[in-house]
Each structure stands twice: as C-alpha cells, then as structure tokens.
Design goal:
alpha/beta, Rossmann fold, seven-stranded mixed sheet, two-stranded antiparallel ribbon, 6 helices, globular
Length: 231
C-alpha cells in the first residue's frame, strides 16, 4: 500500500480554524470543513507558505492581496451558500475563495482581471469540479453566466456597478465589504431593488444593502468612487 505524504501545515490549518474562525462565530460545519480541506498555503505567493495561516492579508503580486482568513470566512458565512447554487466570484486572485466555494457545493465562475493571477488560479484549480476561471474586467462581472444566485466581491469596494447587480437572479444576493469615506469597512449583504420613480440612485445603484459587521479587506481595483475636491 502506498504511503500518504504527511501534510506539514495541517496543524497550522487546524489552529487557524480553532483560534481565528470559531471564536468569532464561524461555526457552520460545511464552511469549517471547506477551510479544513483547502490548503491555503498553495494559494499564497511562493516563499510565504509557512505564513499562509497568519491572521493577516497575504500579498499576491500585481498590487493584489488575499484577505485574512477571518475576513474570507465572514464573507462566505454572509453569502449563505447552498449546495448546487451558481455564483460569481469577482476578484478571484489565485483561486483560494473559489476553492472554498466549490468545497461548499457551489458552482462558481471565478472572475479575475490580472492575467498572471488568472493563469495561476487556473493551474491551482484545474480538475476541481464546479469552478470555471474566466478573465476580464472586474467591474463588468460575467454576464454570459448570469443569472447568479449569489455574487461575492472578494475585496473592499466603494460602490457596486449596476451592470453587476443586473446579473443577480431576482432573489439573488450580493455580498461585499463596503469601504466608506470615513475609513470604516463594513460587511454587507445586498439584494436588487426596483428604482423608485424620480429617486436618485445611491452609490450602489440598484442594490439595497443590510450591514452585518465591521470588517476590513484589501481593496479591489476599479471599484472606487470619483474623487471630488474639498477644502
């Protein structure tokens, strides 16, 4: 019988779950099982494998970052992903969150704008059932796969374009970390709402959000609001 190679970071993965996630209310068995099964160290930058489970963001290159484990867990918990649901992940990076979503039974389109990150995600996720990596502008979403039961923006954004909101199913949900001008990032779950006659659209257009908790994350590129001059 062939021997099974030991997992050198299995203890660190378990410690992450028990010391970072569970004490902060992440207790969904499916979500915890996904975190236990996906080796985060494969998705960080080369040379940082032994830092993969630290309570911090991880640099991926090209000015992009992987969120800290607890931030990712809170996003996924808020998304309330159910087996068999189809979703869009915006800002896939190297594919870690996509792998977790697949582990929870979702069929996910993982959208990435950076060619090098998208290529690495394809390589790391090759053969994983339920994940399709696509490349394109993050703010455009991926209309070819719509409608989606959920859209998850994997990073902090200042606004959500209407063209992404339009890709949600009528009862779909959008999960994001909203960066406020005063510097407080908040995890929020949004749903599409019909525009009121004569109403002025807010910064998130056709999405109405319910806030869950304060939660910081690295910014996703191209989701900033225009800056205005102030005295």
């Amino acid at each position: 019988m062939a021997s099974v190679a030991p997992d050198p970071l299995a203890h660190a993965r378990t410690a992450m779950i028990e010391s970072q996630l569970m004490p902060c209310g992440i207790v969904d068995p499916r979500l915890l099982a996904a975190f236990a099964a996906v080796p985060r160290e494969r998705f960080v930058a080369p040379g940082r494998e032994r830092l993969a489970y630290a309570e911090t963001v991880q640099p991926l290159g090209s000015g992009r970052w992987m969120a800290a484990p607890l931030t990712t867990a809170r996003l996924l918990a808020a998304a309330d992903v159910q087996p068999g649901e189809k979703g869009l992940l915006v800002g896939a990076g190297t594919g870690y969150t996509a792998a977790l979503l697949a582990g929870m039974g979702a069929a996910v389109i993982a959208l990435e704008s950076d060619a090098a990150l998208a290529a690495r995600a394809r390589a790391l996720l090759a053969g994983l059932q339920g994940v399709t990596v696509v490349e394109g502008p993050l703010t455009e979403g991926w209309p070819a796969g719509a409608p989606y039961a959920f859209v998850l923006l994997d990073g902090a954004v200042e606004h959500v374009p209407d063209r992404i909101a339009a890709q949600l199913a009528p009862d779909g949900r959008l999960v994001a970390i909203l960066a406020a001008p005063e510097g407080v990032d908040r995890l929020a779950v949004g749903r599409r709402v019909p525009p009121a006659p004569g109403a002025t659209a807010g910064p998130h257009g056709a999405i109405a959000f319910d806030f869950v908790t304060e939660c910081s994350a690295p910014a996703l590129p191209s989701f900033s609001l225009p800056r205005t001059f102030r005295f």
